[in-house]
Amino acid sequence: MSAVHRRKLFILLRSQNPILIAAIRWFGTLPEIPSTEDNYLHKAIYLHKSRGQHILTNPRVLDSIVKSAEIRPTDTVLEIGPGTGNLTVKLLESARSVIAVEIDPRMVEILHQRVEKLGLLDRLTVIKQDVMKTKLPDFDLCVSNIPYKISSPLISTLLYAPHHSFRSATLLLQKEFAKRLFSNPGDPSFSRLSINVSLVSTVTLIQDVSKHNFAPVPKVDSSVVCIRPHLKLPMVDLNEWYAFTLLCFGTKNKTLGAIFRQKKKVVNLLGNFRMSSAELGETGLFKEKIIGILKTSGFEERRPSKLSCDELLELLLLFNTEGIYFKCQS
């Protein structure tokens, strides 16, 4: 079967029939079915793997995602990348309303038709835009099968953007990416993403999902995670924290002493130095001040990959106390 046939999928608009889905996966096509009211409606559509367009087709997994989201009848649910609406229609059964953000006009058309046939169109709002360029409206929950390519920036936007609060985000993500969200210091997958997410939220693994539950079949398995924002955020400038972790985790397995001895980093920090001390205007002297802070606090030989969120917050506070601040370089 050619790559083109593997990516050609006939999407069922009213139901997911396991026999027909099996035929799609095996043959890359769907047998002709007479067009009657009793038959499942379907439409040919070309799915782009490069855009992360993989449709979740297993009804049991879809039901499990909706159940784990703990949707209340009064909730407004945000869904990003609804595709043909397999998850959307199940969300509409539980929520007051659904806001779906979809950039592909073909998907929007199918979604509208499908929801209209169910008589639920008045509870669905579709935003036909790129979610990364959209100001999101208020919502209570986010429940989505996230396109792989935007997973990291999207989660950062949800957790760090200065807008509304929400109760939780139940997301279907690439499995290896999902592991980074709940990794602990010292784990191979522990990263800047792990530490930034743990600062402002708690992440729980709900379940793993085999790649064979999608059409077309992706290369890797997925996981469902639940992200719950903390009710109380730590007393830290989030923009500065973002810049601080960017510096530390650029080479996360080096010691902090080695990281902060790099001339370029010292020069950048010197530009942010807020204390008026003429003798520290020289890069060399300023570097000595930084290393002195690391030595006296016991952080010089520590590595970012093994530091907890509380330890990094402690180090940032030590720097701030000495007038050293961090900001992203433009």
Automatic annotation (TrEMBL):
Residues 61-231 form the Ribosomal RNA adenine methylase transferase N-terminal domain. One of its GO terms (cellular component) is mitochondrion. Its EC number is 2.1.1.-. SMART domains: rADc (SM00650). S-adenosyl-L-methionine binds at residues 54, 56, 81, 102, 130, 145. GO terms for molecular function: RNA binding; rRNA (adenine-N6,N6-)-dimethyltransferase activity. Belongs to the class I-like SAM-binding methyltransferase superfamily. rRNA adenine N(6)-methyltransferase family. This is rRNA adenine N(6)-methyltransferase. Keywords: Methyltransferase, RNA-binding, rRNA processing, S-adenosyl-L-methionine, Transferase. One of its GO terms (biological process) is rRNA methylation. It comes from the Eukaryota.
